[in-house]
Amino acid sequence: MRILIIGATGFIGNRILKSLIEKPLDPQQAVIALTRSSAPKTESTAVEWRSCDLFSLMQTEVAVRDADVAIYLVHSMLPAARLNQSSFEDTDLILADNFARACRKNGVKRIIYMGGLIPPTGALSAHLRSRLEVEHALAAYGAEVTTLRAGLVLGSEGSSFQILAQLVKKLPVLICPSWTRSTTQPVAVPDVIQLVRYVIQKESLEPGPYDIGGPDRLSYQELMEFTAKVLGLRRRFFSLSVFSPGLSLLWVRFITGASRNLITPLIQSLKHEMVVQNRKLLDQVPFSMTGLESALREALRGIKPTLRTSTRARAQQLKIKRDVRSIQRLPLPQGRSAAWMAQEYFRWLPRSLAPLILVTPNTRGETASVFWEFRFRFFPWPLLILKEAPERSTSDRTLLRIVGGVLVAKDSSPSARLEFREVLGGSHALAAIHDFKPRLPWPIYKFTQAVAHLWVMNRFRAHLSEKPI
Questions:
Q1: What gap in Å lies between CA 244 and CA 263, rounded to an integer?
Q2: Rounded-to-integer distance, Cα 142 and Cα 148, Å
Q3: Where does the pLDDT of residue 217 fall: very low under 50, low under 70, confident under 90, or very high at 90 and above?
Q4: DSSP helix/strand/coil, 290
Q5: What is the enclosing helix (H) or strand (E) of 422?
Q6: DSSP assigned state of 394
Q7: What pLDDT score was predicted for residue 468?
Q8: N or C: which end of the chain has fewer CB within 10 A?
Q9: Quick one: pLDDT band at residue 455, thresholds 50, 70, 90?
Q10: How much is the pLDDT for 368?
Q11: Which residues contact 372 (CB under 8 A, 6 or more apart)?
């Protein structure tokens, strides 16, 4: 069995990887681990490390070759470029769509995915809605998807648990908004690893979502009180009757140093009751789930707060880069395709930008490749040049490479591209720019060209909404 782990260097992925190395599931087991860098994270010969940018469908298709089962652990709540014109929901959606397409091409039949507990009623927060969308995206191309839906995972490296532990450690008095009275059912990270191993081996398990959680249900305030007890700390808790996500964001950021991008979706989800509804998997596994006190003691034993330092390090990494990623969700009229959307974009765009900017197609070379040139009227040099890539395009995905123009940096990446793709079974489409490097000085670019792109995409979205079905 060849097991592919996507997100192998993350909190849960690293634990799964170590477990499979130390206790192989069978003598023929082989483990493939994906990383964004080329350096292996372990010297074990039991693991084959592959470098992969999951935003690239081409790289992802190569990375998933020969896998029998894939464990998908990607969650992109933090920006992946210096300028990130994308919500985390659309970022997660395009990554899951890329991966599912690559699995279809390579015949990967089973995907195991870590998602979030979904409450049975009420409107979902953006975070939980995104977790559910990823489930659907992974299953959109024929793979059997088994989802382990969890709430708070108790583990020393987990961001959510680190936030909770730091609040209890640093604040002698905790003001508790109404969300702290929501019920949660935490699960110990060793139990999550056991459940993943069980699902990998249980090939007869019916695909679909399975809720997982520990044996204890309690409110977030009770969880913080219990954490203080385990730590041997005296803390006072005062309840408020308001939800106050904005206030919660401010004091959680101040105390933990975590990124706004990470904290905001998590806080917005705390209004939900995050408890197990579906026990089909928990009732059949041949082991007992860890109790809260044991799980907390184990998680607190190895905790080393890293959120502040990792947030600063990531900010510094992005600051020295000059790349841009923009992902915009667009309505796809019924019966239309991504190929149609790309054609409609280039029909609509010249009319939208006229008379200031001209958008014209040109055919060049022996292969009669189509180039789209953007230029100011009476300006001799093109601002942008896009080249259609028919060899990487299909009816449900159209790709154009960004190959030149005075607005493109001289050291621009050869992978700079614009794409239109269908997602979620054709119910929506994404228009995305990847790996683009502007020539303009960064402050000027950010408040001119970048703003203009969003203005164009918003107008195109409105145009699509008005199209007759």
A1: 14
A2: 19
A3: very high
A4: coil
A5: strand 417-423
A6: B
A7: 61
A8: C
A9: very high
A10: 67
A11: 346, 359, 360, 361, 362, 385, 386, 387, 388, 400
Fold of 2-317: Rossmann fold (3.40.50)
Place of tokens 């489930």: 135
Residue 193 in this model has a pLDDT that exceeds 60: yes
- Bridge partners of 375, per DSSP, are 358
Percent of the chain at pLDDT > 70 equals 96
Does residue 469 carry a pLDDT above 60?
A: no
- The domain limits of the chain are 2-317, 322-466
For the stretch 91-95, contacts whose Cβ atoms lie closer than 8 Å and that sit 24 or more positions apart, written own/partner, are 91/327, 92/130, 92/133, 92/134, 93/130, 93/133, 93/134, 93/137, 93/329, 93/423, 93/424, 93/430, 94/55, 94/327, 94/421, 94/423, 94/430, 94/432, 95/54, 95/55
pLDDT (0 to 100) of residue 152: 94
Encoding tokens for residue 284?
A: 């059949």
Do 64 and 106 form a contact (C-beta atoms < 8 A)? yes
d(CA 195, CA 148): 8
Residue 116 CA to residue 149 CA, distance in Å, equals 5
The pLDDT assigned to 435 comes to 96
Cβ–Cβ under 8 Å, residues 150 and 117: yes
Answer whether 36's CB lies under 8 Å from 52's CB. yes
Burial of 81 (0-12, 13-18, 19+ CB in 10 A): buried
| Lookup: tokens for 255 | 């105390």
The CATH code belonging to domain 322-466 is 3.30.530.20
